[in-house]
Amino acid sequence: MATVIDTHDDHHDHGPASGLMRWVTTTNHKDIGTLYLLFSLIMFMVGGAMAMVIRLELFQPGLQFVDPSFFNQMTTVHALVMIFGAVMPAFVGLANWMLPIMVGGPDMALPRMNNWSFWILPFAFAMLLGTFFMDGGAPAGGWTIYPPLVLQGGDGFPFMIFAIHMMGISSVMGAINVIVTILNMRAPGMTLMKMPLFVWTWFITAYLLIAVMPVLAGAVTMLLTDKFFATTFFNAAGGGDPVLFQHIFWFFGHPEVYILILPAFGIVSQIIPTFARKPLFGYSSMVYATSSIAFLSFIVWAHHMFTVGMPLQGELFFMYATMLIAVPTGVKVFNWISTMWKGSMTFETPMLFAIGFVIMFTIGGFSGLMLAIAPADFQYHDTYFVVAHFHYVLVTGAIYAIMASVYYWIPKWTGHMYSEKMGQWHFWISTVSVNVLFFPQHFLGLAGMPRRIPDYSVQFAEFNMWSSIGGFVFGLSQVFFCYIVYKTIKGGEKATDQVWEGAEGLEWTLSSPPPYHSFTEAPEVK
Amino acid sequence: MKKLKQLLASGALLTFVSGLTHADYGLNMPVGVTETSRQVYDLHMLILWVCVAIGVVVFGAMVYSMIYHRKSQGAVASQFHESMTAELVWTVIPFIILIVMAIPATKVLIDMHDSSEADMTVKVTGYQWKWRYEYIDEGVDFFSSLDAASNEARQLGSDIDPATVENYLLDVDHPLVIPVGKKVRILLTAADVIHAWWVPDFGWKKDAVPGFINEAWVIVDEPGIYRGQCAELCGRDHGFMPIVVEVKSEEDYAVWLTAQKDTAAAAKLAAIEDLDPRELKMKGKKVYRSTCVACHQKKGEGVPGVFPAIKGSVVATGNIDKHINLVMNGKAGTTMAAYKDQLSDVELAAVITYQRNSLGNKVGDVVQPKEIAALR
Predict the structure, then answer these.
(1) B175 and B57 share one domain
(2) Domains in chain B, number
(3) B187: closest CA among B176, B171, B179?
């Protein structure tokens, strides 16, 4: 206890600079974490607004509000903003805030680079969103930016490419920082196999990022030279192949999917034991399962391309490899449930979101397994069934985990408890509406509605209307979430250091909020 | 009481799920009209039920735990963790389930890949935003685009209720026609960007990639009209290039094929004759409304920054040869396609004449079909 008071006194002497420059020049992991999280929340709202335009146009058949070109810009930029602007920065923000504390270090290992990797992002997104005001509008070829379609884009095209380059640079630097921090900043006694699972999953995620972001950079650079420098990587007329782009893109794209979900696995593995008041059932098998998923993610990419016309042998290989992913994923789900089993559970908001994650992520996993079966995928591919699938794993998966982590750690970050009543309302409204939003999309896809269309045949009208209503309510409930966060930052019941009765880990040994420099003396790890 | 509630809940879930699978109002994948589509449907139902079964066990355990192992029920947390046996069990059992699922999937996949011994071949080419069907060895070749009624209703602010349009967005001007019970090999490619050809009742979709040819095949069991859509984002009007396949009995198909050949011959003759400017403009308006309007808009005003205007444009009011060249050969790197394959001599002459003398332009010159024919 004495050490805690000591560091708290320190805080007054070596605290942050004041004013705006604090945020511009900061090298503090908590400040940068906060910046990342706020940036991600803003992008979540921007991407969400685009989703609202999409759902508004799809509310009923016929075109009522937007031109089909603008609709395509909405679907494209919605995805880019949500993936690169909302989910990834949120995880990096959580990593910044929590990793140094969880491994018992004073800060991230490379603090100046940390500042840089954040401050690239606002510029990258200013550039991406700026394309809306250029001739030809924003990119409209889908977030997968397949050539030749994407090469038909207007003036915004090169800006999108450079924006993606900058996001990639930012992610790679963030990933390097995570790896160096985990390998070098651990307190004595914190062996690798004692690290909290959030640290472990981020450690593996960081390697995935370093492995695949350069691949994406290569792919988009080839697009750029195809458009402006007369190369023909993806043009059959010059000996190239449009499908080559898809192979390169998905070699990045599939590990990217796990970049978006592995940290979520880590978060849920922190939260469930806390509220079940019981240790995680299989710690080491969780670590091995995460590693297996990461490994498999490199050899399944072509399951996104079953319909491009691959040889039979190729299709069989990618089908089998993809089905295999169900095994380690199943191990994770079974371990979470075994952790809950015979625990002594309470259901505060973080636990609700974590359980919501396990159930709805599993539903997304089931549809994923169905999509893995190549002959059936010939029917599912590029329909709303796929849209339903990846929104179950990304919205009720990745984003639910992020929500859970915010409720879980915000008392630690701010020193204030959030309003439990409002948190519960937020959870229940979100969960009901998100299912009204995405569940009917399974039926739409099976019944034959293709994705990325602004208008549809009348037989799809009813489910689209439900889906839109769910979408509007879900959107509004996230505005409510912003209010809850704002209110908690401003004030609220004082949080204890322990915060949650069943919580374990170094973060709960620090004060709430923690001192500006987390552990100036290495803590003792049992 | 609690047990009863759980029982009711799981019962409701089951009825819900089985309701879904037997309903015929667009909740589930269609069974389809080919052997392949039935195999795919069976595979789909097999995986669906496996997932439902696993879901019942997994979610059942979770719900049970959430009800009985809660602190407010006085539950005291056990501290057990780590069990090699458990980990092995829940690794091996799913693995076995996967193998059971992979076997039939492999069989179906191998069948679908065998396009040998086909009775006839149709080459399908995707264009922005229509399909072209070429009957190899028959000399029949035509384009198929969204029908006029849907096209009118789908315009932004058209004020036409889509519900009043029959087969809204799922009807075309010239459907693909194939005979029943014959193995039809389908060769797929594209002229501009990637498209995908999908008729759900046939049980598969396949991409049409520019510069490459993909193969697929279909044997349809019952005559009828089957509808589908392009399934790969291909630009502005991706949502508006449906596919309609009319499956006819062998005799009806033969009659249809002869008629097609006659029309083609008649069109060739027509191209030799000169037409008067009024007739050209009238024909041109029809072509413009079906082919050009998507980008250049109804009054030729275009979409600023995206699609250039025709009204008052340098091309449509300048040198006529440059105008003809642009329409026939397109402009590389843009959405402006080469229309020399898509439109006949008469249609090309008509639409160019229309563009120069309508939409606010008054150049006064005329292009005749034989001038176009000379440029081919």
Answers:
(1) no
(2) 3
(3) B176
